[in-house]
Write a structure and sequence with these properties.
Blueprint: E1 7-12, E2 15-23, H1 24-32, E3 37-38, E4 43-45, H2 50-63, E5 74-78, E6 85-90, E7 100-111, E8 118-125, E9 136-138, E10 140-143, H3 150-162, H4 166-169, E11 173-184, E12 187-199, E13 213-220, H5 221-227, H6 236-252
Parallel strand pairs: 1-4, 7-12
Antiparallel strand pairs: 1-2, 3-4, 5-6, 7-8, 7-10, 8-9, 8-13, 11-12
């Protein structure tokens, strides 16, 4: 299916503002099936139990081949990038409905000896990854699941994707929280990027435990900067995070690399 470019805002009857966004073909199909209501300028989930209504939509989208099988991980459906949870939805259907997701990212940095230098860890996503297979990623990245805090997400993703334990995570430095929106062939992405930096020892070796990462490597800053020249080689949100990291390091100057 080609990347969708035109979307209709998705509302809940219980919330006055748009929560997601659905491509026109998908919206038209769900309206025809009676799973969404057509309200002229937007579509509405008219259901007393939004979680149940969204599950019916997920099942229909899977039946039609628009999304993959259920991932078995419930994600919060919120009323904004850092908003209140209004419902829950299996991860497989979050993107096609354009709901907000909180994504944690950890930049893994290694300070060099001698003249001021720094290297940055990046990870190559597995060819079997559910999204962006074979693309470069930050060292650690993941979406916050329902019922899980940001801190719990950082700890889980840190261990699963790179073998970073609690002792190393104690050195996490919060950097920024940035809301971004972009389009992929999966739908409209609305993401709050929660970014941290983490200085790692020179002897650190990343070890993936969940199969999502094929391998990781540490690159000197100039080499990372050169690789970022080919943005399509990177997962979109990780490209934004890593580009921001390079800018910050360059602005800080060599005494801070």
């Amino acid at each position: 299916m080609p990347p969708p470019r035109v979307f209709r805002p998705l509302h809940f009857d219980t919330c006055p503002r748009p929560l997601g966004a659905v491509s026109v073909p998908v919206a038209d199909h769900l309206v025809a099936r009676g799973l969404l209501r057509d309200d002229a300028h937007h579509v509405t989930l008219a259901c007393e139990d939004p979680t149940a209504g969204l599950e019916d939509i997920r099942a229909e989208l899977f039946r039609c081949g628009w999304i993959e099988r259920p991932r078995g991980e419930a994600m919060p459906v919120t009323d904004g990038p850092a908003g209140t949870e209004l419902a829950r939805l299996d991860r497989s259907a979050l993107r096609i409905l354009g709901f907000w997701v909180q994504k944690v990212h950890i930049n893994g940095l290694v300070e060099g000896a001698g003249p001021p230098t720094v290297s940055v860890w990046i990870s190559m996503r597995s060819g079997d990854a559910h999204s962006n297979p074979g693309k470069w990623d930050t060292l650690i990245a993941g979406g916050r699941a329902a019922g899980r805090s940001v801190a719990q997400t950082l700890a889980q993703e840190g261990w699963e994707e790179a073998g970073v334990d609690a002792a190393l995570l104690a050195g996490l430095r919060p950097v920024e929280e940035t809301a971004v929106t972009y389009v992929s062939d999966r739908g409209l992405h609305q993401e709050l990027l929660i970014v941290h930096d983490l200085t790692l020892p020179a002897e650190f070796k990343a070890v993936c435990h969940d199969g999502e990462i094929a391998y990781s490597r540490s690159l000197p800053l100039p080499e990372l900067e050169a690789r970022l020249g080919k943005s399509r080689d990177f997962k979109p949100n990780s490209y934004l995070v890593l580009s921001g990291l390079v800018r910050r390091l360059r602005q800080a100057g060599p005494n801070h690399w």
